[in-house]
Structures are given as structure tokens and as C-alpha cells.
């Protein structure tokens, strides 16, 4: 078990420079060794071992969300990665070889593949149904999901990305046995120290304490709403999020869990000047671009347009500091989805055409759909207009990361996670997962 945890932590660290999505990968992973030949349909030129399915799924989701039809070779590559039992691994170099007992079944990769394939091939597609059945079969006794099937304890990031997958597949996400209900075990309640109520931990500490994690909170804020990475903005602006009252046990009611998480995120973003932080063990905290993008999606999806504005403006000004972003399909895809959710234009965001950059990392898509309406740059000036004088309508929509991944963090804690996870005190990753106080730019 110790070796497995160390391998997971190493995977997370390799996949991300830190980003949740950690679940999700914001930064490019290391280049593959010279003898590795990447498949023609795969997005990204980085080592695919730990994040290939996550980054592919995120890229396809982002293209579809903007009305672009992905290349069939890219969709086929993703579908071919599925094992006969319905699961997905992070990467299978030879998809013709059958999955065996040594193939690591990855809940984050499987959940992100479900979200992408449901969007592209329909929720009733056999591949989607088989993957959902597998996810349901590996649910933990605590009601949540671990990164790898068979691990005994679930984590908030993995449970959240599975919640989004079940929603994409048309499964009922309500009730006492829903993924959203399982997430409540990771949320700090009204008896938490000052400023921590509403936050989520990636996993409990060894003594059972819950430590706030920005990436896990952004992921869980989406999962508690039953939403995935490509969630759209809410139809009404709910104003600034405020902490709801707790129940008799000092916990937030399940129906108010996402609101409490949004209140924590909003306060953290404001305190930092527009971004979430992550920290590697022994290192100073730094901006978590991937976690910040995921927070934009979660806030927008919850209807908190005003709260989503500041982090989106921060990303417009600082996305060029997102390590490895231009080579990261997961990071670019997650940023596209964040800008879209908050009402901005991914084709003209902070002087960057994010869709072009994303498309340049893989096979050329087929621009066959009508682009969905978006505003201009996504930045608002003092008069409430963007730089081109067009009023920006901020509505909230919801994103493993990050995900991962995506982007999503890799947990460096003893309880490791993958591209979408994030463990307290470690880095979070990409396309999928991670650890740390919130992983930052790897997915």
C-alpha cells in the first residue's frame, strides 16, 4: 500500500506543476522519452502516462462547448482507451491489448471520459453506460470515490468529478446516497476556525481533522451541484455568496453545501487579490491558475456572477504566467470553459485566442457547429464594460480538474491522488489531480 501511495504521489507530481484539476492539468507534463511515439489523435506533446485521458477529455469538452466539432480521430482515440469492464486508465499505450489485473483503473480518467463522450456521442452511448456502471461498482463504503479503484478511502476531488460524470450521463444526483451527500464528509462546518467554514479538505488528516484546500473546495462546489467541468452559467445572478446557517450538528445542509463552498472561495479570492493558492511542502504558497479557473466555473455555475468576475479578470491578466499553458490541452481547455462559464470570449481573452491555442495542441477540429454566443474579452472596466465597451453579463456555470485534474491536483500526501485530486500540503494536478494545499499548474 505504501508503494502504491508513493507511486500515486509521484504520478501527481510528474503530471502537474500544480493545478487541480486537478483534477486537471494546467502545466505540460514532461516530454516523452525519444522512443515514445504519441498517437496521432492525442492532444498534447507531453508524456501521456499520467494524464492522457484527462487532457483529451478536457480538450474535447472545451471544443464542443464552443460549437466546434472535434476531429473524429481525437474522439476515436479517447473511446479506444476504454477497458472491456467500462473503466479507463490514465493512458494505455496499446489500446488493443486487453486490460488485466495490473491495469490501474482510474476513477478520475473514467469520469472525465464520461463527461466528454456524453457530450459528443450522447448520454445513452454504450461507452458512457459501461463507464458509469463501472464507476458505480467501485464506489467506496463511505459513499465517495477514491482516485484508484480499490483504495479504501475516498477523496473530495475524485468524488466531485464522478458527480459531474453521473450528471452528464443523466443519472439522478439527488438524495441521501448521492455523490453530493458523500462530499459533506469533507466540508468544514460552522465550528471551523475563523475564515475556514465552508471549505473542503481533499482528504482528512491522519487525526481526522479537515484542512481547507482551495482546489478541493472549487471541485466540491461543482460536485455538490452535481455539475461537471463544462457546466454552463446559472440563469440568475444570486449576488455575492454568503455562509448559510448550519444544522444542529454544526454542518451545512446538503442543499446549502455548494453555497457555503462558494462563500469560502469568494472570500479567499478576494483576500488574495483574485486567485487561489497552492503550496508544495516546504515551499511558499503561489497562485494556482488551474484552481482559480475551476473556482470561476463553480461560482458562475452557482449564480455568483459578481464573485466570478474578480478571478476571471485576474486570469485575463496573468494566464501568460500559467506554467506550460500553451502546451497543455487540459489547462487551455479548462481556461476556455472558465471564460465561457463567466460570459467572456475564449477567442479574445486577455489578448489571447484560447481556442486556437488549444486546437494547435492536437488534430485540427471540424468547425461545423455555430459558435455559441459569448461576450468580448471577459474583463470589466470601472464602468461595468469590457475593454471594447461591451457590457459583460456575468452568469455562473460550472468544471478534475481536475481535475484533474484538470485542470484537478496530484496528492503528495500519504494518501495519494491523481490528476484531479489535491491533498493538503501537496501539489495538485491537471488534467487531473493532485495534492497539497491546492495544486497549481500542472493540469
UniProtKB/TrEMBL annotation:
Top-level taxon of the source organism: Bacteria
Compositionally skewed regions (Gly residues) per UniProt: 428-443
Keywords for this protein: Membrane, Signal, Transmembrane, Transmembrane helix
Tagged with keyword Transmembrane: yes
Transmembrane segments: 391-412
Record field: compositional bias (Basic and acidic residues): 367-381
Signal peptide region: 1-20
Region listing for Disordered, in residue ranges: 350-387, 413-443
Alphabetical list of SUPFAM superfamilies matching this protein: Terpenoid cyclases/Protein prenyltransferases
Name of the protein described by the UniProt record: Terpene cyclase/mutase family protein
Organism of origin: Streptomyces chumphonensis
Amino acid at each position: 500500500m505504501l508503494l502504491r501511495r508513493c507511486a500515486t504521489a509521484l504520478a501527481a507530481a510528474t503530471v502537474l506543476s500544480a493545478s487541480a484539476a486537478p483534477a486537471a492539468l494546467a502545466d505540460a507534463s514532461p516530454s516523452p522519452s525519444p522512443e515514445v511515439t504519441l498517437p496521432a489523435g492525442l492532444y498534447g506533446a507531453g508524456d501521456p502516462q499520467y494524464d492522457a485521458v484527462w487532457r483529451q477529455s478536457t480538450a474535447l469538452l472545451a471544443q464542443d462547448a464552443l460549437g466546434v466539432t472535434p476531429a473524429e480521430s481525437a474522439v476515436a482515440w479517447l473511446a479506444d482507451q476504454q477497458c472491456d469492464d467500462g473503466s479507463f486508465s490514465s493512458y494505455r499505450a496499446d489500446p488493443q491489448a486487453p486490460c488485466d489485473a495490473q491495469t490501474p483503473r482510474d476513477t478520475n480518467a473514467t469520469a472525465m471520459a464520461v463527461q466528454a463522450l456524453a457530450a459528443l456521442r450522447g448520454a445513452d452511448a454504450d461507452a458512457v453506460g459501461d463507464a458509469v456502471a463501472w464507476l458505480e461498482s467501485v464506489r467506496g463504503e463511505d459513499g465517495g470515490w477514491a482516485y484508484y479503484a480499490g483504495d479504501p478511502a475516498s477523496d473530495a476531488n475524485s468524488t466531485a468529478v464522478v458527480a459531474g460524470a453521473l450528471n452528464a450521463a443523466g443519472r439522478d444526483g439527488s438524495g441521501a446516497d448521492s455523490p453530493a451527500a458523500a462530499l459533506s464528509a469533507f466540508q468544514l462546518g460552522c465550528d471551523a476556525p475563523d475564515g475556514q467554514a465552508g471549505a473542503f479538505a481533499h482528504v482528512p488528516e491522519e487525526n481526522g481533522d479537515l484542512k481547507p484546500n482551495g482546489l478541493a473546495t472549487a471541485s466540491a462546489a461543482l460536485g455538490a451541484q452535481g455539475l461537471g467541468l463544462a457546466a454552463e452559467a446559472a440563469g440568475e445572478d444570486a449576488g455575492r455568496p454568503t455562509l448559510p446557517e448550519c444544522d444542529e450538528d454544526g454542518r451545512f445542509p446538503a442543499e446549502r453545501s455548494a453555497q457555503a463552498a462558494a462563500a469560502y472561495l469568494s472570500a479567499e479570492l478576494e483576500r488574495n487579490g483574485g486567485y487561489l493558492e497552492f503550496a508544495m511542502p516546504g515551499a511558499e504558497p503561489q497562485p494556482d491558475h488551474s484552481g482559480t479557473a475551476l473556482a470561476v466555473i463553480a461560482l458562475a455555475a452557482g449564480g455568483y456572477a459578481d464573485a466570478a468576475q474578480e478571478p476571471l479578470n485576474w486570469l485575463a491578466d496573468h494566464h501568460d504566467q500559467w506554467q506550460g499553458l500553451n502546451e497543455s490541452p487540459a489547462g487551455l481547455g479548462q481556461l476556455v470553459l472558465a471564460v465561457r462559464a463567466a460570459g467572456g470570449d475564449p477567442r479574445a481573452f486577455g489578448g489571447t485566442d484560447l481556442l486556437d491555442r488549444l486546437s494547435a495542441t492536437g488534430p485540427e477540429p471540424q468547425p461545423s457547429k455555430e459558435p455559441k454566443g459569448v461576450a468580448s474579452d471577459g474583463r470589466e472596466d470601472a464602468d461595468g464594460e469590457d475593454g471594447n465597451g461591451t457590457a459583460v453579463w456575468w452568469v455562473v456555470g460550472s468544471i478534475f480538474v481536475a481535475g484533474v485534474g484538470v485542470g484537478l491536483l496530484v496528492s503528495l500526501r500519504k494518501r495519494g491522488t491523481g490528476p484531479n485530486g489535491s491533498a493538503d500540503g501537496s501539489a495538485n494536478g491537471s488534467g487531473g489531480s493532485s495534492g497539497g494545499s491546492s495544486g497549481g499548474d500542472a493540469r
